[in-house]
Amino acid sequence: MRAIRVDAYGGPEVLVPVEVADPVPAAGEVVIRTEAVDTIFVETQIRGGWGEAFGIRPPYVPGGAAAGTVVAVGAGVDPAWLGRRAVAAAGTKGTYAELVPVPLEGLVPVPEGLGLREAAALAHDGVTGTGIAEGIGIQPGERVLILGAAGGMGTLLVQIAVAAGARVIGAARGERKLALVRELGADTVVDYSEPGWTERVGGPVDVLLDGVGGELGLAAFALVRDGGRVSAHGAPSGGFTEFDPAQVERRGLTVRGIAEVQFPAAEIARLTAVAFEQAAAGRLRPVIARTFPLAEAEAAHRAIEARTVPGKALLIP
């Protein structure tokens, strides 16, 4: 089968197509033939040198989720899985490949009414977005500021917050992305690449969903009212937003970080199923902006790093 391998940390050019042996499922595993492979920004950071922090060292096959069809089952696995559409849920290793072995605890069926590309697009961001929303508890009428609102997870968070009855302020970069955020139902859109952007947010917010980090996250943090709630889960700026603990305590803020969205396998499966159910019912729509052949993983990473992809980019084997 064909896969993508990284033999050394570096730029997108280290993503090299290779031919490797087809996997054989171990006991308690299945093998899925992938039809859509999720890509997320953190994979570009791992490839670029962050791998040690995630326990990933070259050589390795990137990827942490994919959707496809079960084509083989290992010992102890119900043969009824054969031919079923399923997702190798978030946390599965080595999904930049045509065939992927998946332990049963990481396998989630794809419901009728949901396409495999849409399922792949939800495999990471649907889980994290749903988990963030459940943890923060968005209430009707609250003002919710979403940084990175045009990204794969940001577009889902906009939809979730709108459905909860919140007044949503979506912050992104450039008119194309702002138009998408507006289309998804945000009440206000703000370009955070422009000077004075925080003034255009229109006053304090009850909830900050920070998918960007860095200086933008700090600027947005100042807008959260006393007693408000913050999720600081994104770091495409180069680092997560670092808050002053004394200020957090003094202002009575509730702050959740990346640790709060590191879910065990059972919770990942539950959140995946919740996101799939919402999408199959038409209440949640992943925005798939671009697809790339698996062999062009390098181009996909370049597009993601250049921030030219609103919504999701997928690899198609």
Task: Describe this protein's structure.
This protein has about 325 residues and is α/β, with parallel strands linked by helices. It has helices spanning about 40-50, 115-120, 125-135, 150-165, 175-185, 215-220, 245-250, 265-280, 295-305, and strands spanning about 1-5, 15-20, 30-40, 65-75, 85-90, 100-105, 105-110, 145, 165-170, 190, 205-210, 225-230, 255, 290-295, 310-315. Strands 3, 4, 5, 6, 7, 14 and 15 form a seven-stranded mixed β-sheet that branches. A six-stranded parallel β-sheet has the order 10-9-8-11-12-13, sandwiched between helices. Strands 1-2 form a two-stranded antiparallel sheet. Strand 14 (about 290-295), helix 9 and strand 15 (about 310-315) form a beta-alpha-beta unit. Helix 3 (about 125-135) packs across helix 8 (about 265-280). The protein is globular, with a radius of gyration of 19 Å.
> Rough shape?
globular
What is the gyration radius calculated from CA atoms?
19 Å
Strand content: 25-35%
Multimerization state: single chain
Keywords:
317 residues; alpha/beta; 9 helices; globular
Which helices and strands, and how do they pair?
Blueprint: E1 2-6, E2 15-19, E3 29-38, H1 41-48, E4 66-73, E5 85-88, E6 99-103, E7 107-109, H2 116-122, H3 125-136, E8 143-147, H4 152-163, E9 167-172, H5 175-183, E10 188-191, E11 205-210, H6 214-221, E12 224-232, H7 245-251, E13 254-256, H8 265-280, E14 288-293, H9 297-305, E15 312-316
Helix pairs in contact: 3-4, 3-8
